[in-house]
## 1
Amino acid sequence: MCYAILAYVIGLSSLLYMMGFLVNFLVPKGIDSGEAQGIWIPLVGNFVLVTGYFVLHSVMARPWFKQWWTQAIPDAVERSTYILVSGLTFYLLVYLWQPINTTFWSISNEYIRAALIAIYLVGWATMVFATFNIDHWAFFGLRQAWLNLSKRAAQSTGFSAHYLYRLTRHPISLCWFVVMWVSPDMSVGHMQMALMATLYIFIITPIEEKDLENEIGEPYEKYKKRVHKFLPIPKKLQH
């Protein structure tokens, strides 16, 4: 339980750091902090960093890896370990990140800047709210550790889609699009991060949905027919 709490704190703190990192606000090192060392070397270095970060997370989230991994660690801390690795590797990414400060856009109008920051913050708040729609405590590994501590078995509640998940199948991914792209300032380094995160979401989402279809079956297939992947509008209105 202590391990799960530690993992939760580190994982959550990494998300809070990322909130400041992307807009260069209230963190020791933002995405544009430091003196740029040209363009091509930072581009290649950041590409390797971000690719490694995403590949590690994708592999650890796959069912076959979880099945293998839980032969070495208890089931009760599998999710917590994922969260811990996620947080620590993000901090490593920040430490090694190389800024590329060439600017794509920088909004000078204070009202537009304030509006964009407000949308950015709403994106983060909505992302957190979405985790509570699917059990925040299990999503971050605390519920599994608590059930193990209290010697109770986890009980499946079956598949259901509430709140934001009635509007879009992937509200968390939709919020990632918002927080990556909505910014009053966009440097080349920020643009690289946003493009790679967007590409990653488009690549990994079909893989994740295939895993869900194998796990849940027909209910999820019906859900896919009823709700858009990202767009939060009813399918019957798409035409």
## 2
Amino acid sequence: MSKEKINERAEELLKLIGLFDASERKAKGYSGGMLRQLNLIVALINEPRILFLDEPTVGMDPRVRRTTWDFINSLKSQDRTIILTTHYIEEAEVLCDRVAIIDYGKLVALDTPKKLMEEHQAKNLEEVFLKITGRRILEGI
């Protein structure tokens, strides 16, 4: 990819995620949430077909987290596979088409959020996790 194409792509992504107004600032002046968003942009510059996101919204305030969720959801329509790790149950419910629950390195459940909740007669994935493992999510972190 040419330098010009990289710059165009970076500008496009900065606008989409809402960081364009801060693009002239040095990154060391960014908040933690802004740095997480910048990491996401850097990962997308070369338009990968598979994207691994490890705790993409840790440290973000609720408004920025929602903006980032909207951005990640927009990527789903672009023929990409996104593998996301999170301890935020609501994030998994909002962003994931399929959820794998891993407990102490062992896969204990894999399905859509809706089917997992139906199967375990739960109103959210936190309850599913509790029923499967006997522990609350925060106890496992």
## 3
Amino acid sequence: MHRWQARLAQPGVTGECFFERKRTGLVFQPARLTLLIKERGTFVGELPSPWDSELNDWTIERGLRAATLQNEGERFGLTFNDRLYPIALRYGDGFFNAVLIQHLMREGFSDVAPTNRKLERIRENRPMSGEPASDCALLIESAIQTIAGNLLRGLTYSRAEAQAVLADGMAYYLDERFNITNAELLGFSRD
């Protein structure tokens, strides 16, 4: 972060991020976040760094967008993982998964193309109703709202752009959490 901060502090220097997480077969290589450096609008170099939640948060605080909306969706897919992991740990995977899917369906994510395609391939038990399910759903919604706020206020995307990135990010997260692409690569259908 210090290298990035020092470079961006120079006069006339701006930047944007590039998220990269290559797949090798069924496994991902470590994620990377790269600062694409521009001087007076012209690309002059890059500073790569291993993915780090704190570095990602720092880029958001400084308004450093990803190079494209698609790349932003991928970056925020991993951001969803960072934000939702503690909730899954607290409630357990099965319960969390069921509440997550129920919440996403209720909140209209099933009406948006990228997440709809993933949600159609996921089969989870419905959670029992009650206070634990309500509490878990509130924590999930809080994480989603925080990420939406990052897109709207921190990165100053329009509402339509933020919604597209949010949907792409959630689709990326669901794909990995429920091993959708891995199942397809192995020839298994989740239909």
## 4
Amino acid sequence: MHKCMDWQAVAFDWNQVRAFLVTAEEGSFSAAARALGATQPTLGRQVAALEESLGVTLFERVGRNLSLTEAGLELLDHVRAMGDAASRVSLTASGQAQSVEGHVCVTATDVLSMYLLPDALRRLREVAPGIELEVVASNDVRDLRRREADIAIRHGRPEQPDLIAKKLGETEAGLYASAGWIEEHGRPEKPDDVRNAEFIGFDRAGRLIAY
């Protein structure tokens, strides 16, 4: 039996939903405004209007950054699905799903290439089978401006202002010490305790040490 949709109960403004989604993904109104080609006040008003219509608070300010509330996190999962669906509709309607083709080089760290890329590339193959993918698993920071790669997935925000960046998620990292080092130097309690310590890492770890 076909279940009828209660269309009168479906009432939302896609622009408001999109403003919330991109702000959540980018982490700030300013970054979201750049991604959408809109103004920061416009996005702020759209998110505020969505909060008012839903009767919940979606973001909290933490210093200069925005943090999703519990209600925002719950809504984000549903809105991401809507965003994916909207992208597929746009591709299908414009006939681009089959016409997008060419060689694309994606570089990511060893860990990301092993654990996260396979599923993402499988979905990309379904959407755009005409793309020839090259994956470079490397922890080196490849220069996108010299076309050493088309897309780079890295654990840091790029410093080049002419690159287009999008925050995909968050990861955790930790510092580890041998039992002998702890016995000799004690267990660190604050950053200053390891200011003069020697670090061992893979590749050029200066950026990580500075952080």
